[in-house]
Amino acid sequence: MDTQVPISFLDLSPIIEGSDAAQALENSLNIAIHAEKLGFKRFWLAEHHNMPGIASAATAVAIGHVAGGTSTIRVGAGGVMLPNHSPLVIAEQFGTLESLFPGRIDLGLGRAPGTDQTTARALRRKLSSDPNDFPRDVMEIQKYFSEPEPGEPVRAIPGYGLNLPIWILGSSLFGAQLAAHLGLPYVFASHFAPAAMMQAIEIYRSDFRPSRQLKKPYIMLGFNAFAADCDEEARYLQTSSQQSFLNLRRGTPGKLPPPKEGFMEQLADEERLSLDQTLGCSVAGSVSTVEDGLQEFVRRTKADELIITSHIYEHAKRLRSLELISQSKIWKHQQG
Predict the structure, then answer these.
(1) Percentage of the chain with pLDDT > 90?
(2) Rounded to an integer, what distance in angstroms lies between the CA atom of residue 86 and that of residue 158?
(3) Where residue 128 falls among pLDDT bands split at 50, 70, 90?
(4) Which of 117, 166, 182, 191 shows its CA 20 to 30 Å from the CA of 175?
(5) What confidence score (pLDDT) does residue 291 get?
(6) What's the sign of the alpha-carbon dihedral 211, 212, 217, 222?
(7) Helix axes 315-325 and 231-249, enclosed angle (nearest 10)
(8) pLDDT of amino acid 219
């Protein structure tokens, strides 16, 4: 029996070889408009710093750009890397976004820096951070969005009293435990770190405590999906993402490269194994192949929602991939 779930889209505003950040951000808006028409539930952008191939570092600004050019799709952060920021500043930024685009903004929070240690220092981040800082910062943000108590000395303006959904992001068991304890929706980064996925899902669901925001567990899982008119073309398009991940692992991050024929076959066994493990939650193929891959993944994980990412070099091919994915029977379309 076919399972239907909402599908969302995660974008990093990829800067492709031969192009620049301005074009990447314009492409993000164009994809978001396309995703909205197709019935995607959310369009999220992620915070990364000092990455030549990613244009979404100023995540709140990029969200405003996308939200301003769309009308119904939810737009949010997948996520804001909270150790880089003051909780008050994030509450003010996202309070402003929610005030401008009411009922359409999501705030996903992660505890990784989203960069290297040198850049983290440039972000004014304390590298010797307390592991308890992240839970405290999340709860501080929750406080800023609630109604202030009489005599409250600091308020987020805009921010306080707004019904802004907060999500916890993670790629380990820590995020699952925190999301369960706080009664918040949880997103697992299975699209690039799937090793602990099933254990994290089990912990989150078994330990979940209902909260004012959420009465029962809700989990969204990352998944890489590349669709084309035939399996061979889709696997060819996927090689841009594979090259990019491998370059990152080699310590030589760069712009998103064009696809490369026979790329996987040219790799050493250890590099091929590394990619297979890192990008294990992926599917590339025709509509039927992608549909089978998504169905198997949802049946295995019982995900409440999927958030797919699809780093394809040619913008038109990326739009086409989204169109084909939307034809899958697993798709629970959103009504705009």
Answers:
(1) 79
(2) 15
(3) low
(4) 117
(5) 93
(6) negative
(7) 120
(8) 98
What are the residues whose beta carbons fall under 8 Å from the beta carbon of 292, sequence distance 6 or more? 283
Q: Report whether the peptide linkage leading into residue 52 is cis, meaning its omega lies within 30 degrees of zero.
A: no
Helices (H), 104-218: 117-122, 133-145, 173-182, 197-207
- Quote the CA–CA distance of 91 and 48 in Å, as a whole number: 19
User: Which residue, chain included where needed, has tokens 């998944």?
Assistant: 223
Candidates 121, 203, 143, 122; CA nearest to 170 is 203
DSSP state at residue 52: T
Question: Could you please report the per-residue DSSP string of 232-247?
Answer: HHHHHHHHHHHHHHHH
* DSSP for residue 50: S
pLDDT, tens only, 267-320: 999 999 999 888 999 999 999 999 999 999 999 999 999 999 999 999 999 999
For tokens 């999906």, what's the residue?
225
So what's the pLDDT on residue 119? Answer: 67
Cα distances from 300 to residues 3, 210, 232, in angstroms, run 11, 24, 26
Q: What domains, with CATH codes, occur in the chain?
A: 7-224+301-319 (3.20.20.30)
